[in-house]
Design brief:
Number of strands: 33
CATH superfamily of the largest domain: Aldehyde oxidase/xanthine dehydrogenase, molybdopterin binding domain
Bound molecules: dioxothiomolybdenum(VI) ion
Number of helices: 18
Structural class: alpha+beta
Helix content: 25-40%
Shape: globular
Amino acid sequence: MAAIIAHDGIGAPLSRVEGLLKVTGKARYAAEYPATGLLHGVVVNAAIARGRITRIDDSAARAVAGVVDVLTHENRLEIASADKKFQDDVAPPGSPLRPLCDAQIHYNGQPVALVVAETFEAARYAASLVELGYEQDAHNTRFEVALAEKFVPRKKRSGYYPPKNRGDARSAFEAAPVTIAGDYHKGAEHHNPMEMHASTVFFEGDGRLTVHDKTQGPQNVQAYLAGAFDLKADDVRVLNPFVGGAFGSGLRPQYNVYLAAMAALKLKRSVRVVLTRQQMFTHTHRPECLNSISLGAERDGTLTAILTDATTLTSRFENYMETVVNWGMMNYACENAEGASYIAPVDTYTPGDMRAPGAATGMTQFEMAMDELSYAVGIDPLDLRVKNYSNIDAMNGTEFTSKALREAYAQGAQAFGWDRRSPQPRSMREGKELIGWGMATGMWDAMFSKCAARATLKTDGTLEVASAMSDIGTGTYTVMTQVAADTLGLPASAITAKLGDSTLPLSPVEGGSWGAASVGAAVQLACHGVAARLAKAAAKMDGDPLEGAKLDDLLFENGTMRRRDGKGEAVPFTAAMEAAALDRIEVEKTAQPGPLDMVSLMRKSRNTHSAVFCEVRVDEELGVVRVTRVVSAIAAGRIINPKTARSQILGGVVMGIGAALHEESFLDHRLGRFMNNNYAEYHVPAHADIHDIEVIFVHEPDPEVTPLGVKGLGEIGIVGTAAAVANAIYHATGVRVRSLPVTIDKLL
Ligand code: MOS
């Protein structure tokens, strides 16, 4: 079969189908659902990093008018006793935090009480009156101290890939005529989506829970709550039709939903818990990382040795580990490469995935090292990359399903005007501003995850496609709509996409950049199923207008089907359904990598690539850095929607600029607490920090990588950007800063 579609199908720059709802305030977020008799919960967080609660005095809090309860470990509801009941879909190995389980304090900021009141104001005031006594144990949050305890965990989290070494990197490094070596450091970062983590839990009359949660996976939250409170999964419905950004912070259920559910179950009332911006710094974050990188090369720039040894932090109760060191080892042809990756425990909450986890750290550091090497050998940074280009995945020795990085380099350089760069640092300036041009490579995974979707065609000619997938602002609604439009030849206006509801067909969390590829494939399968049923229905019509045509012989166009060979008439979907006495056609299908895919998965690497070019202007006297121009050339397979795709990359580039210049979470080590827990002190790029960003999608047809040839775009935009900025700063100033973010103090 095939569809002819004028403007709404795959490849069309459709505006977000839910855009109007969002800009008119009609899209409702988790904290915005009204409920009769709604109670408000405010969380009290631990003020020490390690020890025990010895005393709770909630008398003053309970005396506040309107306060209904103060939940603590002393009066909490029954919860599951087994750790594994708290292990959600994306939990790393270990013992997940069980809020209010007992008196133990594992980190500063751990939720220790929930004050529940008739009004938010009463709850907030009463929360400030809860007095806690502690017995403190020694804690550590210092990286350099934790390093002494670094280790390689035996049980790896899924999605973590240990590096594979090749050749003899140490000897090659010793023998190399040109070498560079440095310790590259990346500070911790916190996800700072606009929407804070929030949950409104409706306690339904029959005891079931309807949970509006800010999450990237409603079914993940459903299973987690059912496990933690020993409920039947069917008795917990989780919805997240709109999510105000997440960047990975919504992959795991956070404590707001757990506490709201506990309070609702205990008090048999509906409860809302909204975290404050400050409390957003008491759960997940991108871990701090130290990566020692040594590179050896021939005088002509041929890489002969790669050594990379990284340690990232984790909590003391879970082993969260990112794939940090592999990227450079995969990307460059080099006969000798050795990587090592460790984690080291500190007394903080467990870090977690934040946009391009591992790559945004490790590839950034590697590309900063490549920049140093380019100056050491005296070769243009882009030429050095091209010289060491690998057509295959150099670490695994496997082919890529596609890798149009060469094209990305060329088109990015062309658009940027890279050939006009003067090679010497501090050689370009305008007035008081030093100008620097830098570039870097980006790389991310192109993943595909088992996902189901349902397509329902009604006799009024409208189609609904549905999956429990989330749209965290990435454009999933629009992608689902376009794939359906493409497959059945319907205009977008006839299609409704539904998502963000645990009762919808099975979906993974939205993450890892697998959303569009996975739910897109599922929607396509379901729509194919609808098409097949339509063709069957048409055979029941008087005179068989399609003359017995098979599905493959049919064209689907504007709500009709007709023979490709032009014989017969166009049959409206509705006429076929009427003839077969169908009031609806409903098909649910699951897309998943089949056994053959698994074989090819082992044989081939699946990745997105990017080439990022950047101009900075640095005030010579003040050290203020402005990123005035970025060109990001992306090789990410088939682009379903160039408009939403561009937005994804723009957002990634902005976040990369944040990582390069602004974002870092600082711990007060005496308290073991993240201190700059607000937008005044945790800096993210503001409008004034963002100038010209150009996004290029290079042609990269890849029918093999995923069913739709889609590779995903949520993460590749950030990777490469921070390194390009840092490298441009070196070119502008001649100051090599190996620790991100490059703040003014490091430059002067
Ligand atoms: Mo992404 S860090 O997988 O939400």
